Amino acid sequence: MFDIIQTDWRKLVHDIETAKPKLDSLVWSAIPNDLRKMLIERLQPPNPELAKQITDIMSSSTLPVGWGKQLFPELIITQSCSGAALLHHNDKLKNILGSGVQLCGECYSSTEGVLGINLGYTSLNQFTFAVRFFEHSELNKLYEVVITNYNGLYRYRMGDIIKIIDYRNGNLPVFELVYRRSSILNHFGEHVTEQQIISTLQRSIKQLNEQLKTSFILVDYCATSVNENNLFYHRLFIELNPQQSNDAIILDQLLGYLFGHHNTNQELENSLKNFALFIDKDLCDSNYFYSDERLSSRLQSLDILLCKQGTFIKLKQAQMLGGASNEQLKVPHVIPETAQNLLNLMVVHSKRIKE
């Protein structure tokens, strides 16, 4: 939601100020007439004062920390997704909402149903099972979630890999979501997980921030496994978000250098090379099997591409145009080779960091 507000806040201001959506809006043109009439009634009366307040907040070249709280001053708690593959979004939300809003992961849910509830809101990735033969689970072991329908005729593999971390009331296991089976990078059995990549990126961005004296955070990432003329490697797309005005200037310089808009800057060039080297080395430290394949030269080093700002919003839009539901839309952290339209979009809006 906040991504949409940040991108289309001018449309929001227009609708509030005039109490009528723009007629040339693609969304508006697709809405039936009876629903249009009801929406226009709900927008009444025009509120130019609120429109001005939103403009004052959103028109800054660099949005202040807590701008989401400024837009919704009565907001005190928000339900958010959590888990290994989504935890980096919490940093982004904390920057948007500031320190006065509690982030709460309410439950472990999916399209198939609600499978668990959150026992401890202070730890956003601890849940309890709702459906499972859990009496055979062991502490600190990994399990894949399988659910059975009421009559027991069908079993569904959720694709979620969980780790049992505690027990409550004797036999109720508490678990954390580790990764999804479909989001593993693999060529020769190295099985690089989302959790490993996100942890590596967070450490690498921290190192980059210390080097450049910035405060970048990770917007999102996605990856794909590549076999190019029997050269095997993983390609990683990364988007960074500046937090301060100076960050925005430096990020513009980094992207300008990669896209050839700015002259070569030795300091920035070295920083990017060190960033790419640190990511690959840290991933080797995190995953023994990945390290072993790198040392054997069967796997080449990571192919790391830095994305323009707004690239992952474009990725979501492309997914929706492809028929994905807006309510259940998730950024794919692993894009298969078959999804060439998504891969092409990412390549067009990013540039390779050369080691």
Describe the overall structure:
The protein is an alpha+beta fold and 355 residues long. It has three domains: 1-59; 105-182, no CATH class; 184-352. The protein is built from twelve helices and twelve strands. It has helices at residues 2-18, 26-29, 33-43, 48-58, 67-71, 88-97, 194-212, 245-258, 266-286, 288-295, 311-321, 340-348, and strands at residues 77-79, 102-104, 107-110, 113-118, 127-129, 142-148, 155-168, 172-180, 217-228, 231-241, 303-307, 350-352. The strands form three sheets. A six-stranded antiparallel beta sheet has the order 3-4-5-8-7-6, with no helix packed on it. The longest helix has 21 residues, at 266-286. It starts with a helix and ends with a strand. The model is unreliable at 122-131 (pLDDT under 50). This is GH3 auxin-responsive promoter.
How would you summarize the topology of this molecule?
Elements lengths: L1 H17 L7 H4 L3 H11 L4 H11 L8 H5 L5 E3 L8 H10 L4 E3 L2 E4 L2 E6 L8 E3 L12 E7 L6 E14 L3 E9 L13 H19 L4 E12 L2 E11 L3 H14 L7 H21 L1 H8 L7 E5 L3 H11 L18 H9 L1 E3 L3
Parallel strand pairs: 1-2, 10-11
Antiparallel strand pairs: 3-4, 4-5, 5-8, 6-7, 7-8, 9-10, 11-12
Helix pairs in contact: 1-4, 7-9, 9-10, 11-12
